[in-house]
Design brief:
Blueprint lengths: L1 H17 L6 E15 L8 E17 L6 E6 L4 E6 L13 H12 L7 E7 L9 H15 L7 H16 L9 H5 L4 E6 L5 E5 L5 E7 L5 H23 L12 H4 L8 H25 L3 H19 L4 H11 L4 E6 L7 E7 L3 H16 L4 E5 L6 E6 L6
Parallel strand pairs: 3-5
Antiparallel strand pairs: 1-2, 1-12, 2-5, 2-6, 3-4, 6-7, 8-10, 8-11, 9-10
Length: 402
């Protein structure tokens, strides 16, 4: 706790190097990065997922402006840049840059008749952006939480998750799903977060990793042809659903099917469509089994499901190529590794690795060295240890007044 207080003091001190102390209290949140470690969710697969928080946070500190001041001032420590926007003008311009994600959330709240006040906002985002760790989403979730503290309305975490996702859709024209915000807003220390996009069911599962370490190794490699492959996979699933509905399936998305029910329609689909649909349907079933395994404390069973998921990715998505395949094979051949799975469908070179704690440093060093020698690409490692969650705090301004 003392170290956390020291970090908070440093962030607050930085805030007052940008903004003048006014009033007596400012408020803020820390929001962790997050990764989905099992499951896939998109429009045609309102499926299930299990996620965990990284041990890297975004600090957001905000100061409420006087009544009637509708301006928003965002300062980023990372970019060393201040951007000023207005609640009265919710249009997007290129110069809004990184700040517009947070602004889109506030604009969405305003459009729902949830009063938002003008504010000065300081951001120190330490969540990695090399891979999809929901760095931008953490800022949106955090500013939504702060906006509620500055106002007289209250919303649940799930309601705020919908606000953030809808803001991205409306003001950023981005594909977004509320599910990715749920663990950011509702995740708890010592837990992984389970969610079902179709039913809205969600919860935190108390989990102990014991003698294992969970880490992410990422090359940050984002190849256009892999992203195009991902889009083609979604298109194939959409076409398959249309075909199945013509045959009487009457479904909106794949979560409505089990593999057994899917067998009824397999012969009427192309080989690619069969493989893609089978991947997502089996992944939904795999997440449901993983939830049960974790609830019972069956960590070995959970790891087995992660490994099965990786085989499923390789055999049914045809997306494991080039450097990603080299990295996965290299990790599998490393002593102490218990489970491996590509994250984000392999689009950003991020791989989940579960390894024995006493072998972690040796394994990490070996993999990084061998991968760089083979490809010329540096790997970055991040860990998650389930000790982070969204936390609110207040700071007494008088401490910083001269």
């Amino acid at each position: 706790m003392p170290q956390e207080n020291d970090n908070l003091f440093k962030e607050a001190k930085s805030f007052f190097q940008i903004y003048q102390p006014k009033g007596e209290i400012i408020t803020g949140v820390t929001v962790p990065g997050n990764v989905m470690i099992l499951g896939e969710i998109f429009e045609q697969n309102k499926g299930k997922g299990i996620s965990a928080n990284l041990n890297k946070n975004a600090f957001i500190i905000a100061q409420k402006k006087k009544d009637g001041d509708r301006s928003l001032e965002f300062y980023s420590q990372h970019y060393d840049e201040k951007i000023k926007l207005s609640l009265n003008a919710p249009e997007r311009r290129d110069e809004h840059g990184w700040a517009y994600g947070m602004a889109s959330t506030l604009y969405m709240l305003e459009g729902m008749s949830k009063k938002v006040t003008g504010m000065n906002v300081y951001i120190n985002n330490k969540i990695p952006d090399l891979f999809n760790a929901n760095s931008v989403e953490a800022l949106e979730a955090g500013i939504a939480d702060i906006a509620s503290k500055f106002s007289d309305w209250d919303m649940t975490g799930v309601e705020l998750a919908h606000v953030c996702a809808d803001g991205e859709k409306k003001f950023l024209s981005a594909e977004s799903n509320f599910v990715k915000y749920v663990p950011l807003l509702l995740g708890e220390k010592g837990c992984v977060t389970y969610f079902d996009a179709a039913s809205g069911d969600h919860g935190n599962i108390k989990t102990t990793f014991g003698n294992l370490t969970f880490m992410i190794m990422s090359s940050g490699l984002k190849k256009k042809h892999i992203e195009e492959k991902r889009k083609s996979i979604f298109a194939e699933v959409k076409a398959a659903i249309e075909t199945m509905n013509k045959l009487g399936a009457n479904i909106d998305s794949l979560e409505s099917l089990t593999l057994e029910k899917f067998d009824t329609y397999r012969s009427k689909l192309t080989l690619e469509q069969r493989k893609r649909c089978a991947y997502f349907i089996s992944e939904n079933e795999r997440v449901a089994a993983a939830k049960i395994a974790l609830t019972k404390g069956n960590l070995a069973g959970f790891l087995e499901l992660i490994n099965e998921s990786q085989k499923n990715i390789k055999n049914r998505l045809d997306i494991v190529q080039e450097e990603n395949e080299i990295l996965v094979d290299m990790i599998l051949d490393t002593e102490g590794v218990r489970a491996v799975r590509m994250l984000n469908m392999g689009t950003d070179g991020a791989v989940l690795v579960v390894v024995d704690k006493d072998k972690k440093l040796q394994a990490e060093s070996k993999i990084k060295k061998t991968f760089t020698t083979s490809t010329g690409i540096e790997l970055v490692t991040e860990v998650f240890n389930l000790d982070t969650q969204l936390e609110e705090f207040t700071i007494d301004v008088s401490t910083f007044k001269k």
